[in-house]
Amino acid sequence: MKITTVGLGKIGLPLAVQFASMGHEVVGADVNASVVGLVNAGTEPFPGEEHLAEKLSEVVDAGRLSATTDTAAAVSQSDAVVVVVPLFVDEDGVPDFGWMDSATRDIAAGLRPGTLVAYETTLPVGTTRSRWKPMLEEGSGLSEGVDFHLVFSPERVLTGRVFADLRKYPKLIGGLSPEGAKAASAFYEAVLEFDERPDLGRGNGVWDLGSAEAAEMAKLAETTYRDVNIGLANQFAVFAQRAGIDVYQVIEASNSQPYSHIHRPGIAVGGHCIPVYPRLYLWNDEDATVVRAAREANAAMPAFAVGMARGAFGDLAGAQAVVLGASYRGGVKETAFSGVFGTVEALRAEGAEVTVHDPMYTHDELRTLGFTPHDLGSQVDLAVLQTDHGEYRGLTAADLPGATVIVDGRSVLDADAFPDARVLTIGRG
After folding, report:
1. Which pLDDT does position 296 carry in this prediction?
2. What is the pLDDT of residue 159?
3. Of 32, 54, 237, 250, which is most buried, counting CB atoms within 10 Å of its CB?
């Protein structure tokens, strides 16, 4: 097949490489000319994705993957188009479809009869049918279900391990017609391989959910569940701390029973997915009070962690405070909705002088994010660990000289390594 992948970001590029590695002819389309140039040179444009560098080089050298900024031209030569363009959501939960609208108009301009179009970007329920279908039909002059097929098939992978996750999880699809669903099933069966999953009653592979709306909701449901679960864990942690209980022991005990799956509490929920998709769900379902409460509980955790520091340290005015970790999670160079922003803001509101350290960011990159960079080994009064980078697990007092209070927001530090500091962990009374 000839395939166009629209969007060469942290999901789109590995997808394009995956399709090409299965022997298909793939063109990656992106508005960023720099990214296009790097892909055409066989060079990964971002770090941290396991196996991407070698796989990308291999398929580019073999002539099975190229990149372009001309989406319409690429689509006009394709049998299938897969769309992984970012959808942004503001703090009020209102989606900004700007980039996706632009990409969809470009796709429509090149759309030809017989093409399958699959959107993988997570969407509010109903978007594929109510927004993309009329936009594609108007821009192309073609009729969906007759001249071309449109489906929704959510990406379900985690950055850093995309190739492994593509094999591990069922590929969900939802068409606007039975014929479209059949076309999508055949497409994904030709571009993906699946691990054996005896734990799944349906087996691993392509799962047709019967409609685009069901597929859209499935992605929102699985990610919103995680946000709600973490919100519950955080509320348990706050109470346990007041009551002098170790919430981690409680969670371990509870989860020893097979019907309990309580997640871990922590200082923040960040990234492109977990804090964002509940907002997309709430955009459709304003009555989802449980979802709204969990989102508010999780958003309050950075300030709660700083409150722990204030309670142990005293007045923070003028104190030298370092936040450890800018990334939203360990091992990933990404700050989308990272807890670092709320943590720094809360510390500054208390009058602290705040610096930020992250092993994945240069000093200039931290300055660009609005932070004052920090070097481990520099004198501090207190520290707040925000990201569970592997490098932080081995920190000692020599890395944070002078620190008398350390708030471990991820429960990863060895308290014995800081004999002269009070090490506090969220949820440990």
Report:
1. 94
2. 86
3. 237
The residue among 272, 279, 231 whose CA lies nearest residue 90 is 279
Q: Which two tokens stand for residue 162?
A: 């995309």
DSSP three-state, residue 28: strand
Of 47, 12, 17, the closest CA to residue 29 belongs to 12
**Cα gap 134→139, rounded to integer Å:** 8
Distance CA 364, CA 367 (A): 5
Which residue has tokens 């395939």?
3
pLDDT in tens, 394-411: 999 999 999 999 999 999
Q: What are phi and psi of 158, to 5 degrees?
A: -110, 130
pTM: 0.89
DSSP string of 250-307, one letter each residue = HHHHHTTSTT-------S---SSSTTTHHHHHHHH-TT-HHHHHHHHHHHTHHHHHHH
* 263 φ, ψ (degrees, to nearest 5): -80, 180
Burial of 391 (0-12, 13-18, 19+ CB in 10 A): middle
Q: What is the C-alpha separation between 133 and 149, in angstroms, rounded?
A: 9
Q: Helix 301-313 to helix 289-299 angle, to the nearest 10 degrees? A: 40
The 3-class SS string of 184-240 reads HHHHHHHHCCCCCCCCCCCCCCEEECCCHHHHHHHHHHHHHHHHHHHHHHHHHHHHH
pLDDT digits (tens, 9 = 90+) for 196-232: 999 999 999 999 999 999 999 999 999 999 999 999 9
Answer for the pair 124, 95: CB distance below 8 angstroms, yes or no: yes
Under a CB-based contact definition with an 8 Å cutoff, are residues 308 and 426 in contact? yes
DSSP single-letter state for residue 394: G
Contact residues for 407 (Cβ-Cβ < 8 A; gap 6+): 267, 305, 306, 308, 309, 312, 382, 383, 384, 385, 424, 425, 426
How far from 262 is each of 184, 205, 224, CA to CA, in Å? Answer: 35, 28, 14
Look at residue 301 in the predicted model and tell me its pLDDT. Answer: 97
Q: How many CB atoms lie within 10 A of CB 258?
A: 6
Q: What is the DSSP letter of 153?
A: -
| pLDDT > 90: percent of the chain | 93
Could you give the residue numbers annotated as active site? 219, 273
Residue 54 · residue 90 · CB < 8 Å: no
Please list, residue by residue across 301-335, b when 16 or more beta carbons sit within 10 angstroms of its beta carbon and e when fewer do. Answer: bbbbbbebbbebbeebeebbbbbbbbbbbbbbbbb
